[in-house]
Amino acid sequence: MTSIQGLLIASALFAAILSGVVFRSRLTYRLVAMVLFLAAACFVLVPDATTEVARRLGVGRGTDLLLYIALPAGVHAFLLLYLRTRRLEVKLTEQIRAAALKDAIFLMPAPRTATAPGEQ
User: Fold this and answer.
1) Close Cβ partners of 86 (under 8 Å, ≥ 6 residues apart)
2) Domain extent at residue 75
3) Is residue 119 a part of any domain in this protein?
4) Do residues 39 and 70 share a domain?
């Protein structure tokens, strides 16, 4: 094993552990992280395996196959983060509006009652 392979496997292991900590309550996500780590470790240890898998799928090189997989995965991850940000913005807006209405009702002066002529 070369030094770059050790470094790549260590970084993949770190990413798998980090995702396990982040997704501690979601078993499915942790299992996906472990499968991805094992696949990454196998491809790092046997680099020609990506080329073999690519050829069986009709792609010329393993590098191209990884790019074809990584590009939609990156776009998907970006869209998930964008949707989460939008949902948080909507929730925050709703909470701010509710607090503003509550404060407006609380700070509103009491309505004056009409007085009869001659009363003060």
Assistant:
1) none
2) 62-107
3) no
4) no
**Residue 5 CB-half CA count within 13 A:** 9
Alpha-carbon distance of 98 to 104, in angstroms, equals 10
Q: Is residue 85 one of the residues assigned to a domain?
A: yes
Name the domain count of the chain. Answer: 2
* 80-116 pLDDT per residue, tens: 899 999 999 999 999 999 998 888 777 767 667 766 6
The pTM is what?
0.60
CA pseudo-torsion sign 56, 59, 28, 24:
positive
pLDDT tens profile 49-60: 889 989 999 988
